[in-house]
Amino acid sequence: MSYSLGLYRFVDGELVPPDMDVVRTVLAPYGVVPGKSTANGMEFWIRADDGGEAELSVSDNIIGVERPAMGEIRGVIAELADRIGAGILTPRGAFLFREDSRDHLPEGMKNDSVFVPEITREALEGVEARTA
């Protein structure tokens, strides 16, 4: 079974695409195959200094993260979400958002989300541990 995360950015209750310039900037230091274009979007395979890897796929308004390793890769994913103003959906259905995203979420999502001042590796791992 594959472990995956999803990054979603909302503005005024609507799902919006990520800023691809920011995505490329954040992922560039980790890119093994940076920015490979596909018919539906962009794919990235990233590797951190500790050897952890993940595959990211940007399609439409969503960034899918497949098999994100524990360790530094979680920090890269957290930094990416924080910098693009996105929330992270964990496999157990918990959403992690920055506090300043609260008023942009669709109706009903606020009650099922965890809010933090900044999305960090520690915040992500904390949400994952609470919902495991």
Explain how this protein is built.
By secondary structure, the protein is α+β, with helices and mostly antiparallel strands. 23% of the residues lie in helices and 36% in strands. Strands 1, 2, 3, 4, 5, 6, 7, 8 and 9 form a 9-stranded mixed β-sheet that branches. Helix 2 packs across helix 3. The longest helix has 13 residues. The radius of gyration is 14 Å and the shape is globular. It starts with a strand and ends with a helix. The mean pLDDT is 90.
Tags for this entry?
single chain; nine-stranded mixed β-sheet; 3 helices; 23% helix
Note the overall shape.
Answer: globular
How do the SSEs run, as a string of H and E? EEHEEEEHEEEH
- What about the largest sheet? 9 strands, mixed
Number of strands: 9
Helix content: 10-25%
Roughly how many Å is the radius of gyration? 14 Å
How much strand content do the residues show?
A: 35-45%
Low-confidence runs of at least 5 consecutive residues: none
Q: Treating each run of at least 4 consecutive H or I residues as one helix, how many helices?
A: 3
Q: Averaging pLDDT over every residue, what do you get?
A: 90
Structural class: alpha+beta
Q: What is the subunit arrangement here? A: single chain
Distance between the termini: 15 Å
